[in-house]
Design brief:
The chain is an alpha/beta fold and 310 residues long. It has 11 helices and 8 strands. A 5-stranded mixed beta sheet has the order 6-5-4-7-8, sandwiched between helices. A 3-stranded antiparallel beta sheet has the order 1-2-3, with no helix packed on it.
Length: 310
């Protein structure tokens, strides 16, 4: 059963102590009771406040071991406040804002705290886009065209929900080749969906056995522009990057910002921020720690099939 605070007052009452935070993580990590990560047995006893020892193999496991919180020197109450703050920022969260909110000593620390949660927000409800028409396009801020030098190429996949944009995926790719585009589409869009693209040759490999592929070649097919949903998404993304992050987004870290924007856009109609908080913590107990040096190393290696979305 999903249990999460719906307001700031509820959050402050529910997570005012370390014990309350540990108990909440325990319920998310082991909803049916403790089980040993090594031998999968359930019988264990508590040897310290946050440490359990398996009765079968003797291994000791804490509620934070193997999670994003592993090895942290900060109290869980502070982590929980950071996560609540991230999910409650409707227009986007910045490392500088988090640094000021928590009183962290350095921007690097704030950045390290912030970016894992943006990726987790995407993973929290990752599933294929399906059942509706899709508009696909690629864009680069600045000079027009897929060959614009020095720009990052981002594939935009947007569902049509009547006259509105439904759920979206944003994915950076190394180039506009058929292999790169087809890999992204196959991993993000459910087979059998109707896909509309422009006439770029990289989409030619989308066979009829997988998708109902329609090519929009002139304004009569697509309205005022060939792919209006994708053009609108590109404009919104640029406006958000310029407004929230002052345009200070490097290529190395662009994937993190695409994650954040996807996370926020696809949850723009969510009634309770607390549910987003709950979803992030659900993922946090299944994903290992992300040290700053590791995140920097990963961000410098662009993966052709790096998928982002919710």
């Amino acid at each position: 059963m999903e249990c999460y605070p719906k307001t700031l007052d509820e959050f402050e009452r529910q997570f005012c102590t370390e014990e309350a935070c540990r108990d909440y993580l325990f319920g998310l990590r082991w909803p049916e009771g403790f089980y040993c990560p090594q031998c999968q047995q359930r019988k264990a006893w508590q040897v310290r406040k946050s440490l359990w020892e398996c009765a079968t193999c003797g291994i000791q496991t804490s509620v934070t071991a193997g999670t994003i919180f592993q090895g942290t020197r900060q109290p869980l109450t502070k982590w929980f406040r950071a996560i609540w703050w991230v999910t409650s920022q409707e227009n986007g969260a910045s490392a500088l804002g988090l640094q000021r909110f928590l009183g962290l000593g350095s921007y690097e620390t704030a950045w390290t705290w912030l970016h894992p949660w943006l990726g987790l927000g995407v993973i929290a409800s990752l599933e294929s886009l399906k059942l509706m028409k899709h508009m696909l396009g690629g864009g680069k801020p600045g000079k027009r065209g897929r060959g614009a030098a020095g720009k990052a190429l981002v594939v935009i996949m947007a569902q049509q929900d009547g006259n509105r944009i439904g759920r979206v995926r944003l994915c950076r790719v190394p180039d506009a080749s058929g292999r790169s585009l087809e890999n992204v589409i196959q991993q993000c869009v459910e087979q059998g969906s109707e896909i509309m693209t422009d006439g770029w040759s990289g989409y030619n490999g989308l066979g009829p056995q997988e998708y109902n592929h329609k090519v929009i070649r002139d304004l009569a097919d697509g309205g005022n522009n060939l792919l209006p949903s994708c053009h609108r998404m590109a404009s919104l993304l640029k406006r958000w990057l310029l407004g929230t992050h002052q345009g200070a987004v490097s290529h190395e870290h662009l994937d993190y910002y695409l994650d954040e924007y996807t996370f926020r856009f696809n949850r723009r109609t969510s009634q309770y921020r607390g549910k987003l908080f709950y979803r992030l913590l659900q993922q946090a107990v299944t994903i290992g720690p992300s040290p700053y040096k590791q995140m920097i190393k990963q961000s410098r290696s662009l993966k052709p099939q790096h998928i982002v979305g919710t």
